[in-house]
Amino acid sequence: MSASSSDVQLHICGVPFSLNREILAARSAKLAALLKENPEDDLSHLLGDIPTDSQTFELVARFCHGFDINLSPENVIKVLCLAHYLEMSEIHSTNNLVKKACFYFQNNILPSWNKCIKALKSAETIIQQAADLSLVDACAESIIAKVLHDPGLLGEPIRNVTTTDDDSENDENAYKPNVKRRHFVLDWKSEDLTLLSISLYEPIIRAMVHRKVPLEYVASSLFHYLNKWVFPGTKGEDEPSIYERNSQREIIEAVERLLPQERGLIPCSLLSQMLQSAIILDVNTDCKSRLEIRIGKQLDQATVKDLLIPAQGYAKEEQYDTERVKRILKNFYGNYSSTDTSGLIVVAELADEFLAEVASDIDLKLNTFLELAELSQAASGGTKRNADGMYRAIDIYLDKHRYLTDWEREEVCRVLECNKMSPEACEHAAQNEKLPVRVMVQILFSMQLKLKDTVAKRIQRGSDNRLLKLEEDKEDARGNSSSEEEMMKAEMEKMGSKVLELEKECDMMRREIQRGSYQHKIQKGKTSMWKEMKRKLGCMTSLHETNFRVKKKKVHPR
């Protein structure tokens, strides 16, 4: 059908429109002026900056022709921007589109949480025009006011989940949006801010922080946003496109800038997940460094799984990123200011556990192992922490690196504090053929000192008990007390003689080892020598009864 002479031809986003000149001019001051100055049929070249798409323009054209149009959260901002561009105001024509769309926006969009979010989402393609008309600010202010009234709209605060074997379930429940939201108006479906692009989301969250929205709710929203837009794309399900990687990189950097600074507000597990995504996406160095510092400041709340960060790159030599973990450990020690040493002990044990996990990596270099071990040892120096975790890591490393020379094995064991090992660990170590002879002798000496201390305490305790009993029963049990005193004295003398015998034996072993004459014999006879020591102490047990283990949680490396 051919257009009449009274029609004007327009092409909007490639879609042709043939519209009545007089009807358009009656509603639009801009089109009226253009038609008056340009009588030709096609005005498309004069509307190159029109902020619209073909669907929105069709709605406006229907309104101009007198048809009813259905405004919705998805189209009202686009209609408002186009109506403003075409100058469809009350000055030009009564009951015009700007008034109609503004009334709908104010009375149907702004009171509703869901509709505000949907309207903002729809405006992302014309964000500058919507911002110029203050439509973005109006939606943002409405959203912030609702969150100030009900912070739960951002989602439940993150639970600091303790890692267990059921990690997948915990990860799913650690942060999620509130399923029971309260709204100013009744909505059938609950939306959340994660629908918005980062260019809209970031300023809204920043304004919420400035307006003192509780930070635990802000943190919940931030990680729900990451879980929606970043984490699924960095877990290996599908390789993201270059555009998606750039977008995810931008999101990581923006969210890191928004993270609250308060220690412990965000679990280490989530910070670690964020750091690993940042590494994969190759975000800027400053962002990654700040994430490392955040983890380091609350490392006493972490688990070993949080430190098992896979090494990246084609030239990687080790399975895990040990250099990054060393920096995280140094950050913790450098920021630790408490007089309570319990935090230092917790992190030292965590470092031991991490060392045990990476010790099985055949590519783990000796220097790297020693540096990690020394960080653990130095931080807990002077404390009463157990050295069993360090022994376990050393045992694994020696087992997986059988090619080490005698000197290198000595270096590995240099970080082991034998005097802090448990009796079970000492007994296991004395039978461990992977250990150097010197270490085995040190363990025997340590056992000797502990035994002397135990005997001394027993003698003191026995003496105190005897004096107390003598005081209580001095009138009617003099004969019995004397007999018990003789028995106690005989028992202590017997134990003392065993200790002296052990001291002589160990002293002889030390002299012989120093001369080197018995080294081969000792290396072959560790088990029998240990048996003989225990026999002389009167505590002989089967070697097979002891199976040393350090209790640890099951770890699933990411």
UniProtKB/TrEMBL annotation:
Keywords: Coiled coil, Ubl conjugation pathway. Residues 6-73 form the BTB domain. This is Phototropic-responsive NPH3 family protein. It comes from the Eukaryota. It comes from Anisodus tanguticus. Signal peptide: none annotated. SMART domains: BTB (SM00225). The lineage of its organism: Eukaryota, Viridiplantae, Streptophyta, Embryophyta, Tracheophyta. Transmembrane segments: none annotated. Residues 467-512 form a coiled coil. Belongs to the NPH3 family.
